[in-house]
Amino acid sequence: MLLTLFESHTHFFLSMFQKMILTKIISNTLSLHKKQLIEWLPAVRYFSSPTNPLVNVDVNDKSGIAVVTMNRKPVNGLSLELFEAMSKALDDLENNRIRGAILTSSCPTVFSAGLDLNELYQPDKKRFKAFWTTFQDVWLKLYGSSFPTAAAINGHAPAGGCFLAISCEYRVMCPDYKIGLNETRLGIIAPIFLRASMRNTVSNREAEKALTLGTLYSTEDALKIGLIDEIAIYKVKAIERCENFLAQFNNVSSIARSFTKRSLRQKDLEELENCREEDFNIFWSNLIEPSVQKQIGDYMQSLKKK
Ligand SMILES: CCCCCCCCC/C=C/C(=O)SCCNC(=O)CCNC(=O)[C@H](O)C(C)(C)COP(=O)(O)OP(=O)(O)OC[C@H]1O[C@@H](n2cnc3c(N)ncnc32)[C@H](O)[C@@H]1OP(=O)(O)O
């Protein structure tokens, strides 16, 4: 199966022996099972995803690039259902070996307002566990995807919204919006996987400052610290710029690219894989603190009064 896929996606001949050696070297290097190796082979077929009301996936047949649009009005609050839809969409993309994905929003001025505060306020433990586990799944799948990713940030991206964007490899943002990880301003502690994405995007020094202060940056300031890569005037332009970034990989071996990405991100992914339950427990015990609940409740009221 593995060898058949190699044959159909490489344009040069490799003897059976060479292929076995190559597979062994790659597999050993990253301690992967063959099943995972097969999943990282280059793009072979494209698909039109069945429409999901919360996440729309539109794959361009020519370029093989998928535009993944979050569609939970009014602000793409990240609820359990939205995370489930994203998790499913990421599985579909992985299984269909697309050439790249662009994450964006259908809300006119908001990329995502982060975690749905209704999930955090007076939570039911069973639902919350499912919510948090699916949140972890989405990060593992997005940050660790075999295909390259970019975010067209067409609106505000606070907290979890910023987190989704920095889990991608490239970010293009429209002007006059805010982006950042403002968790500490809500009295909540940034979880382990969020810190990993931030450190992978800006310098350790900037990550520490941004996370401890809970700073929300303007588009221009975000560019200055490297939190985003480019500014584009409209959403359409932002998507175009993301496509240009992803098109650069047409000249790069898919196998070499995906393995290199994976090896650079492996440590962060394993860190969460190895402590998912503990991550939930830390998060849960902090979240149900009366002072944290009060802060979240007050914050929700202040948003409604606006
Ligand atoms: C270790 C322990 C723990 C650890 C916890 C670890 C957390 C992990 C990391 C992630 C944490 C988070 O994401 S916490 C979420 C943090 N999010 C934020 O702080 C963003 C809050 N929202 C905003 O700042 C603004 O809404 C913004 C996005 C800029 C858009 O402004 P607008 O003027 O366009 O819109 P608004 O009028 O404010 O909002 C429209 C409606 O949407 C609602 N709304 C806005 N944001 C919402 C949200 N996140 N969840 C639910 N509902 C929201 C408003 O109340 C309004 O409701 P109605 O009045 O009824 O219409």
Descriptive notes:
- The chain has 14 helices and nine strands.
- It has one domain (44-304): 2-enoyl-CoA Hydratase, Chain A, domain 1.
- It has helices spanning 2-9, 16-29, 34-39, 80-95, 117-120, 125-143, 160-166, 192-199, 204-213, 219-225, 235-247, 254-273, 276-287, 290-305; strands at 55-59, 65-70, 100-105, 149-153, 157-158, 170-173, 178-180, 216-218, 230-231.
- The chain has a six-stranded mixed sheet with strand order 1-2-3-4-6-9, sandwiched between helices.
- It is globular.
- By secondary structure, the chain is of the alpha/beta class.
- Bound molecules: ligand 8Z2.
- Homotrimer.
- It holds the Pfam family ECH_1.
- Its main location: mitochondrion.
Features:
306 residues, alpha/beta, 3-stranded mixed sheet, 14 helices, 9 strands, globular, disordered N terminus, binds ligand 8Z2
CATH architecture assignment: Alpha-Beta Complex
* Count of domain modules: 1
- How many E-type strands? 9
| Rg from Cα | 20 Å
Ligand kinds: ligand 8Z2
CATH fold-level topology: 2-enoyl-CoA Hydratase, Chain A, domain 1
Q: Main sheet? A: 6 strands, mixed
- The helicity comes to 40-55%
Uncertain runs with pLDDT below 50, 5 residues or more? 1-45
> What is the terminal-to-terminal distance?
58 Å
Subcellular location: Mitochondrion matrix
Keywords: Acetylation, Fatty acid metabolism, Isomerase, Lipid metabolism, Mitochondrion, Transit peptide
Pathway: Lipid metabolism; fatty acid beta-oxidation
Protein name: Enoyl-CoA delta isomerase 1, mitochondrial
